[in-house]
Design goal:
two-stranded antiparallel sheet, two-stranded antiparallel ribbon, little secondary structure, single chain, binds zinc ion, about 0% helix
Length: about 110
């Protein structure tokens, strides 16, 4: 399992908690809520809430709450060889220090 940056909201997510980013087997999910997101690597909150056929996905389109959702500048990070999130420009793996304010007031941390 590894960390990655959600291509929709920019937050840091773990593949193990988000169906591998919803990118593999994308045909099993219901994308009607946001067709443009299909094919993107998504966090548990941006990913589909349901499977095709209507059954809810593991987190039903909500942040999993297993760790705080940290939003990062979009497109500035990638998953490096050891599975950590690395800042492209500086090579830093300390992504927390690049955290930005949540865009829509939607921290989704279940409080
Ligand atoms: Zn997201």
């Amino acid at each position: 399992m590894s960390l990655f940056q959600c291509e929709n909201c920019g937050c840091c997510e773990n593949t193990a908690l988000s169906s591998q980013g919803f990118k593999l087997f994308s045909e099993i999910f219901d994308w009607s809520y946001a067709p443009e997101r299909r094919g993107m690597r998504l966090c548990s909150a941006c990913g589909p809430a349901s499977l095709r056929g209507g059954a809810p996905t593991e987190n039903a389109g909500k942040w999993h709450g297993r760790f705080p959702r940290v939003f990062l500048p979009k497109g500035e990070f990638f998953t490096n060889a050891v599975g950590n999130l690395e800042h492209k420009e500086t090579g830093s793996e300390d992504y927390q220090k690049f955290a930005i304010e949540a865009v829509k007031g939607n921290s989704g941390e279940g409080r």
